[in-house]
Amino acid sequence: MPTKFITHPQGIFRRDSGSEGAPNVSVSGSRQAVNPAWRWLALFFGTLLISATPLKTTSLSTPSTSIPADGELRHLDNNAFTVGERLTFELSYGIITAGEAVMSIPGYKYVNGRKTYETRIEASSSSTFDWVFRVRDRYETFMDVDGIFPWRFEQHVREGHYSRDYDAFFDPTEETAETSDGQKFKTPAYVHDIVSAFYYVRTLDLTHAHKGDVIRLQNFYDGKTNPLSVRVLGHQQVETEAGTFECSVIEPMVVEGGLFKSEGTIKIWLTDDNNHIPVKMSSKILIGEIEAKLVKYQGLRNTLTSKVD
C-alpha cells in the first residue's frame, strides 16, 4: 500500500587487563580498490555520519556534555535495549541480495571499573557474492551502561584486498581519546563513536517528535571530532521479512567532515515502541540504491508493540 509521512505534535583511559600497551593499528591494501557500493553495504551501520545537510531546525533536548566538579559521570535512562539483543539484516543493492549484517549485544564487560555493554556490528558479503567483492567487517564498542557513552571503540575492516584495524580509548573525565597509534586528542566529555551514537539515539522517544526536529551530538573518529545531527523526517509504516512495523524515520547528518563521502542521503526507520529497533535503512547513491531490512530479531528488552502483523 502507498506510504506517506504523518507528523505528530510534540509531546580513565586505561586498557582492560590482558591488553598490554597500545594496540596495533594495521592497514594494508589500497583504499582505491574498494567498490563504492560495497563500501556502503559493509559499513551501513557506520553511516551515521555520511550526508552533509544544512541545519535550520530546532533541537530536541540533549543531556549535558560537561563533567560536574565532583567528577560524577552522567546517568541516562535506557529502556530500549539490553544484553541478549540480536538483530539480523539482509543487505541488498538494487535487486541483488549481497550480504548480511548483524547488530548484537552479547554481554557486559567492565572497562576502567565501569560496567559496559559490549555492542557489535558485523557485516559480511554472501558466499555467492564473495567472488565479486569479499567483505568481513566488525565494529565493536564498549558503552557505559549508566551513561550510554563509549569507553572503547574497535574497527576491523576486511574488504577485498584492503584491511584496517583501529582502536580508540575514551576518557570522559579527562575529555580525551587515545587512538591505536598512541596519539591523544581532546574531545567533548561524552563524545560518541559511530556505534554508541546509534545506540544513544535509540534511547530517545521520537514517537511524538515534530517533523524537522534535530538531535545534536558529536562523533570522534580517526583523530577528529565532527558534529553529528539526526533529523526527524516523520512517521511511516514499513514492511519487512520480519513483519510490518510503525516507525519513526530519521536522517543522520553532519555539518562538515565525516567518515565517508556520498552524493546521497541515508534514512533509518526505528520502531515506534520502547525498543526503537531499526527495521530498515536505505540510501540512494550515485548508481542505484542500497537497503538493509530486518529479517530476524531476538532478545528484545520490551514487547514489540509497533508490529502490526
Give a quick rundown of the structure:
It contains 2 helices and 15 strands. The protein has about 300 residues and is mainly β.
The value of Rg in angstroms is 19 Å
The DSSP helix count reads 2
**How is the biggest beta sheet arranged?**
15 strands, antiparallel
Report low-confidence residues grouped into runs of 5 or more: 1-27, 30-61, 255-263
Distance between the termini: 14 Å
Instruction: Determine the mean pLDDT.
Output: 79
Provide the succession of SSEs. EHEEEEEEEEHEEEEEE
Instruction: Count the beta strands.
Output: 15
Q: Give the assembly state of these chains.
A: single chain
Classify the secondary structure makeup into a structural class.
mainly beta
The percent of residues in helical segments reads: under 10%
Shape: globular
Taken as a percent bin, the fraction of beta residues is 35-45%
Number of domains: 1
Describe this structure as you would to a colleague.
5% of the residues lie in helices and 43% in strands. It is mostly beta strands and 309 residues long. It has a 15-stranded antiparallel β-sheet that branches. Strand 13 and strand 14 (278-284) form a beta hairpin. The two termini are 14 Å apart.
What is this structure's SSE topology?
Blueprint: E1 26-28, H1 36-42, E2 86-93, E3 96-111, E4 114-125, E5 136-144, E6 150-159, E7 162-171, E8 176-179, E9 184-186, H2 194-202, E10 214-221, E11 224-240, E12 243-253, E13 266-271, E14 278-284, E15 289-298
Antiparallel strand pairs: 1-7, 2-3, 2-15, 3-4, 4-5, 5-6, 6-7, 7-8, 8-9, 10-11, 11-12, 12-13, 13-14, 14-15
